[in-house]
Amino acid sequence: MSTILLSVLALGGMGLLFGVGLSYAGIMFKVEEDPRLGEIKDALPGANCGGCGYAGCAALAEAILAGTAAPNACPVGGEASAKAIGAILGVEVTVQERQCAFVKCGGDRNKSSFRYTYQGLNSCGAAMQLAAGGAKNCAYGCLGGGSCEAVCAFGAISMVNGIALVDNEKCTACGKCVKECPKKIIELAPYKNKTRVACSSRDNGKTVRANCTVGCIACKICEKNCEYGAVHVNELLAAVDYEKCTQCNVCAEKCPMKCIVK
């Protein structure tokens, strides 16, 4: 028998031996997967958006089963997922109130003044690196680069006349746009509360008027006219307390700058 043939047979025998050994080890040390893990994965939407703080739905399912994440941790799946997972685990789940992203700026190209024309990458991060942190005279306004639109996996954000607008019906409150915005002017607000302040400026009234026709001038008219104590002006900017707000919209009607939307 030739040396080559002997070598081939020897290697084949060793391969067979190692294969049998690995198969035996796999059987001996096999860890049984909790069948609930697959059920939890199926109950999640499969968006893998990361809004829950985990790498994806599979990672969240593992965390929920391990008890390190709440059954209602998925903002995308909402009430349906939370209740389904609660049933799988045999626990009562408190369903979180539906939320949606809100851009706290109404200063589009027709309502804001600009110090220069930006021509570059469609990126808010890139635009913010230029002089004065962007082309707008208002240092707090939406840059209009569309970075939030780019990271939204649900098509809930669109750029309209230079500012980002959110479609409340499509928004899943995953929070990606909130993290992406370099100006930090996107927040998660209760879906049911439509009365919101569409401004983030903390400049004085005179400066705001010079920069934008729909900016908050901290006149406190909204605060004075809210009989429920739901609107307050702090640090030159009005804010709505969503828990107290009844959406009577008196504040929006009285606002001289029309920066409170309804």
List strands and helices in order, with pairings.
Elements: H1 3-28, H2 35-43, H3 57-66, H4 78-89, E1 99-103, H5 124-128, H6 147-151, E2 157-160, E3 163-166, H7 176-180, E4 186-190, E5 196-197, H8 205-211, H9 221-225, E6 231-234, E7 237-240, H10 250-254, E8 260-261
Antiparallel strand pairs: 1-4, 2-3, 5-8, 6-7
Quick overview of this protein structure:
This protein has 262 residues and is α+β, with helices and mostly antiparallel strands.
Write the CATH architecture name of the largest domain.
2-Layer Sandwich
Strand content: 5-15%
Q: Structural class from helices and strands? A: alpha+beta
Unreliable sequence segments: none
How many β strands by DSSP?
A: 8
The biggest beta sheet reads: 2 strands, antiparallel
Distance separating the two termini: 91 Å
**Helical content class:** 25-40%
Number of contiguous helices? 10
CATH topology of the largest domain: Alpha-Beta Plaits
Run of helices and strands: HHHHEHHEEHEEHHEEHE
C-alpha Rg, in Å?
27 Å
Strand order of the largest sheet: 1-4
Q: Give the domain tally.
A: 3
Shape: elongated
Summed over residues and divided by their number, the pLDDT gives a mean of: 90
CATH domain class of the largest domain:
Alpha Beta
